[in-house]
Amino acid sequence: MSFVFMDGKTHQFIDILESRTLASLEKYFKRYTKAARMGVKVIVTDMNYTYPELVSVLPKAIIVTDRFHVVKSAVVGFNQTRIRVMKQFAKSNTKYKALKRYWKLLLKPNEKLDIKTYQHYSFIPGLHTQNQVIEEMLDFDPELRRAYDALHTLRSAIKYRDIPRLRQVLNPSNQFSEEIEKHFVRLRDSQASIKNALKYQYSNGPLEGTNNKIKDLKHTAYGFGDFNNFRLRIHLMFELKKGA
Asked: What is the reported pTM?
């Protein structure tokens, strides 16, 4: 549950803090001079609700919600819808089996679907292309189709940085499944920072890579009994890399 942060442009590791509560983060950043804090222009974050509140101590910063985490939120909502629809059928039903077997196909971006090759798919009679198989499964339930459309419209809006399309799919008047709506409520609340993600090139990807390196270090060391030792070892690791 630590807080790791880096320079958004150079991707240079800065520090790791033991706690990521808003109170402890505000206390930490207030140690910097007002001029330094005013110089922070962008905060790039995942869907964590705490980090955007750091504008209280970094008042000139705009919030950018990482694009990967936006799409991931919609993917989780769609999968929850698919599982609920799937469980409406008996386990012996071919519809149940098809939805369970071809869930990855439902998540595949539309532009990557094979629309030319016909082949046999288990539990779906006849020869079909990938997009035809998807159409067969979406016909199982209208709510599943709407959830599918919501996911891929959002994904397309993020990929092509299409703000009008983003605004359209997040419109509260849309009738999506309960599972999709649960995640879209958060996305609507973060709509301004998601639009910033479409305007700017900043990404949380490099930080996720840094997190993985830190996890590998912790795993290799079989954990650390003292956080200060852990923090110093991380600083050493990244400083050595910097000087190499």
From this structure: 0.89
